[in-house]
Amino acid sequence: MSPYETWRRHFEQNRLRPLPAVDAPELPRAQHLALARSLARFQLGESGEGRIAHEIDRVEGVDAEYRAALKLFVAEEGRHAAILARMVQALGGALLQRSWTERLFVHARRLFGVRFKLLVLLAAEVIGIGFYGMLSGAVPSGALAQALEQICGDEEAHLRFHCQFLASQPALLRLMWRPLGTAAALTVLWDHRATLRAFGISLRAAAALMLGRVREAALRLQGAPARIQLASSQI
Question: 3-class DSSP state for residue 231?
Answer without folding.
Answer: coil
